[in-house]
């Protein structure tokens, strides 16, 4: 799950008294240019994706959930889980530091409001902090957030924000908490058999089995993270969940790749110099145009040879099928003309042999 901000330049975007919380980014041609100067606040929150959030929630559930049934003989415990669709049963194993491992079985109740409250408490436990910055508020991991005037900004949620709102509910685009809450409550309250039958009838075309199993939790997690963790107001109207921009799919993996490759130019600088030197010598001795021309001629030649062989093969099949006798005569003539030895062997020399009379 990833969140990023796009906004037009606005000198009052952040409160200037908190300049130590953000940086100025100038994309102009010179330092004096102000038309392309932006104030940027950036931070990453590893461990707050929906999949990691599920694991956090399971650990929390094991310690706080209502026990529906406990079977000492099988060392298993049945737990009530509001973040699973109604009637869905899933098993999870947990290794406790004290005592042997225990099999925990989650039984879905499909109560979305209670699921949202539980997830909100889980996120809220990582938000509180102390800060000395005026007008700043803390959010995830105790990071102070600059006071933000969001009236001239647009916020975009990608990845899980798109899938949680759109894959089943079809609510991608402008975010509306109330619509998402109503859609999630209706979906989660359905019996798991009904959800599964709808899935088999292709009513959830953009979802897979993992999605329909985790949709209740992920929609609650995405919404709670937006409002509790990132401090967006519940009536926010300028937040959008998107999959593409200008026809290009937007994903967090691009940022991860760029982050991983950030040191490669320095690490391979000497190797690149050596490669360029060898490439220059090769092009100087054997110009690139020669390789291209020779390669094209070879392709044309191979194409012509294959075409001729294909035509001859088809003609041979047609003659064999419709004119088998003529085919034999044609092959005989070709062999007699092209192969002298066979021509000599096929010559009729019976008239030159002496006649012998058979006597008894």
UniProtKB/TrEMBL annotation:
The chain crosses the membrane at residues 297-323. Keywords: Hydrolase, Membrane, Transmembrane, Transmembrane helix. GO terms for molecular function: GDP phosphatase activity; ribonucleoside triphosphate phosphatase activity; UDP phosphatase activity. One of its GO terms (cellular component) is membrane. It comes from the Eukaryota. Signal peptide: none annotated. The keyword Transmembrane helix applies. GO terms for biological process: CTP metabolic process; UDP catabolic process. Belongs to the GDA1/CD39 NTPase family. This is Nucleoside-diphosphatase mig-23.
């Amino acid at each position: 799950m990833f969140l990023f901000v796009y906004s037009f330049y606005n000198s009052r975007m952040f409160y200037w008294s908190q300049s130590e919380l953000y940086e100025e980014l100038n994309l102009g041609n010179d330092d004096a240019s102000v038309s392309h100067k932006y104030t940027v606040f950036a931070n990453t929150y590893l461990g707050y994706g929906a999949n990691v959030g599920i694991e956090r929630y399971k650990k929390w559930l094991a310690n706080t959930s209502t026990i529906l049934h406990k079977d000492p003989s099988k060392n298993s415990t049945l737990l009530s889980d509001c973040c699973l669709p109604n009637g869905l049963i899933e098993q999870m194993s947990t290794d406790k530091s004290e005592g042997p491992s225990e099999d925990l079985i989650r039984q879905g109740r499909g109560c979305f409001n209670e699921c949202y409250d539980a997830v909100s408490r889980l996120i809220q436990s990582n938000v509180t902090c102390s800060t000395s910055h005026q007008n700043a508020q803390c959010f995830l991991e105790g990071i102070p957030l600059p006071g933000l005037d969001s009236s001239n900004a647009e916020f975009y949620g990608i990845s899980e924000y798109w899938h949680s709102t759109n894959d089943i509910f079809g609510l991608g685009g402008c975010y509306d908490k109330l619509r998402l809450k109503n859609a999630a409550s209706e979906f989660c309250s359905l019996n798991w058999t009904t959800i599964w039958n709808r899935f088999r009838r292709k009513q959830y075309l953009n979802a897979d089995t993992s999605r329909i199993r985790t949709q209740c939790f992920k929609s609650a997690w995405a919404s709670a993270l937006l409002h509790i963790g990132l401090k967006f107001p519940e009536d926010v109207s300028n937040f959008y969940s998107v999959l593409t921009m200008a026809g290009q799919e937007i994903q967090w993996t691009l940022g991860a790749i760029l982050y991983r490759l950030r040191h490669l130019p320095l690490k391979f600088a000497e190797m690149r110099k050596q490669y360029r030197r060898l490439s220059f010598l090769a092009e100087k001795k054997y110009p690139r145009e020669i390789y291209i021309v020779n390669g094209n001629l070879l392709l044309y030649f191979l194409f012509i040879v294959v075409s001729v062989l294909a035509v001859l093969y088809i003609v041979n099949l047609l003659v064999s099928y419709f004119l088998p006798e003529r085919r034999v005569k044609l092959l005989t003539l070709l062999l007699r003309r092209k192969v002298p030895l066979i021509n000599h062997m096929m010559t009729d020399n019976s008239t030159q042999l002496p006649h012998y009379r058979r006597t008894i």
